[in-house]
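In the design runs reported in the main text, the only information available to the sequence generator was the tokenized backbone. The following block is the verbatim input for one such run; it is reproduced so that readers can re-run the procedure and compare outputs position by position.
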């Protein structure tokens, strides 16, 4: 099944930057946009994760629970079961 496409409006300055980057990377503009969006999504997720941990650390009780759970997971790695 062929992928469908759609049109998105961008300003002329952004288009020129996209065109230059596409040429520099020797990749189609669509590929550049796809990779940029994937990278941006990762950045948003990591930022949200960092913010959640900041909030978690503000509560000594919840942070202590987190550390205890991490210790439990660390112990499972040393249970003698081979990774196969």
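Verbatim output:
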């Amino acid at each position: 099944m062929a992928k469908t496409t759609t049109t998105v409006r961008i300003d002329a300055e952004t288009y020129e930057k996209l065109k230059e980057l596409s040429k520099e990377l020797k990749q189609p503009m669509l590929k550049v946009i796809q990779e940029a969006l994937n990278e941006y999504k990762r950045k948003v997720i990591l930022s949200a994760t960092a913010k959640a941990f900041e909030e978690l650390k503000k509560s000594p009780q919840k942070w202590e629970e987190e550390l205890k759970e991490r210790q439990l997971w660390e112990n499972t790695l040393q249970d003698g079961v081979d990774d196969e």
